Amino acid sequence: QKALARLRDGDGVSTLIEGIVEGLAAVQEAVKGTHPGALQWAEYLVPDVLKQAQDALEAKEAGRETLGLPTGHRDLDQILNGLNQGFYVLGGAPGVGKTSLALQWACRAAEEVPVLYVTYENSPQSLVLKAICRMAGISPADVDRGRADLGKLREGIKVFLSSEIAPH
């Protein structure tokens, strides 16, 4: 959390990575001092637990379906209670749509909060294509294969360029 706060404050990505490494080292050190099966009590967390319950109650009373950020997939939001702070890992075989799904979640979350999308496999052009196709309601594979409706693609581009997620 501290590393992400520093990144938001304008520190570079290397600072984020250093913060994550420091945090992991602290976790490893804390785990070394525990015994398997032992409960770790943390009285200082009690106020946070109460705040979480209060926030959930207020969200429900305000008509929100989830306390976390909506993914855009209602069933998943009900199971996860939306996207909450933490680290999510999405796995699957090549070509099943992991990038498209993660990008959909990121685009939906970006409507409410800043989003950092990190990928090692996809070019920026590929991600922009997938985002535009999502907004156009067409498949990126159809674009690659020359079967896309160009009218829908152009409409998706207009929506993309007018959205908050488009790079400025």
List the helices and strands and how they pair.
Blueprint: H1 2-8, H2 13-32, H3 46-61, H4 74-80, H5 98-109, H6 124-136, H7 140-144, H8 150-162
Helix pairs in contact: 1-2, 5-6, 6-8
Q: Classify the secondary structure makeup into a structural class.
A: mainly alpha
Tally of contiguous helical segments: 8
- The chain-level mean pLDDT equals 82
Measured as a percent range, the helix fraction is 55-70%
Strand content: under 5%
Uncertain parts: none
> What's the total count of β strands?
0
For the sheet with most strands, the description reads: none
The shape is: globular
Could you give the distance between the termini?
A: 26 Å
> How do the SSEs run, as a string of H and E?
HHHHHHHH
How large is the radius of gyration?
20 Å
Q: What does this molecule look like?
A:
- The protein is mainly alpha-helical.
- Helix content is about 55%, strand content about 0%.
- It has eight helices and no strands.
- The protein has helices at about 1-10, 15-30, 45-60, 75-80, 100-110, 125-135, 140-145, 150-160.
- Helix 6 (about 125-135) crosses helix 8.
- The protein starts with a helix and ends in a 6-residue tail after the last helix.
- The mean pLDDT is about 80.
